[in-house]
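Annotated sample (chain length 103).
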Amino acid sequence: MFVVIYKWQLKPGKESEFRDAWRQATEAIYVTRGSLGSQLMKGQDGTYYGVARWPDRDTWRRRSEPEAADPQASRLIGELTEVSFPPLELKVTDDFLALKTHS
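Output written by the structure step:
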């Protein structure tokens, strides 16, 4: 498995719009491009982080070919972002996120 971590600082007052666009783009990627899912998180300083899971790096690299899964949502994410940091690519070595919980 392969994980990519994204990091954004948003323009003031744009959180709700950003979250809506992120959900729209992420759903399109999940449905059409082979993503294993993603989470959006907010740090105490207001920075947003996206953690996307993929079967492998090649699938992630092809996610925008020939264009973004949802071009309008992707464009909006860019417009609502003050600073976008380079993605951090990680290969999963051990995974306990999918453990079954006991009732």
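Annotation: The chain has a mean pLDDT of 93.
Annotation: The radius of gyration is 14 Å.
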